[in-house]
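Q: I have 126 residues here and want to know how they pack in 3D. Can you give me a structure?
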Amino acid sequence: MVRQHARLRGEAVLVLNALSSAWFSIFRVTGLHPDGGLLLEDALGGGEVWVVDEGLSEVAELGAVVATRLGRVAGYAMTCGVMAVLDDVTLDGIRQVARRSGVEPAALVDEPRFVEGLWRRALGFG
């Protein structure tokens, strides 16, 4: 794998690096970026990220809550894989469960069972 990565050039290297350092979280759409794309607030981990993703830009309204995996590429981020639109009730419930459990909300996203459960709920299987 390392040898294959060493032979990559240009955009392929940027995309592979983005995918290898991608992170999952729940984000709120806070606005439009002046150069295109959206500004998202990480609702669990804090911070803001500029996301350039045509599909997300078409479906996500201001204030929308989405769960997705993001990868950084040259100053902005792109979505990596599945995205689920959530609501404020779900986000508040996640925060409450974390608080009652004594777990930092940002730590939940490192737990595969949490992410799987979130996908199951978003897809209507749980």
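Q: Anything worth noting?
A: The chain has a mean pLDDT of 84. The helical segments are 2-7, 11-20, 54-59, 88-101, 105-108, 112-122.
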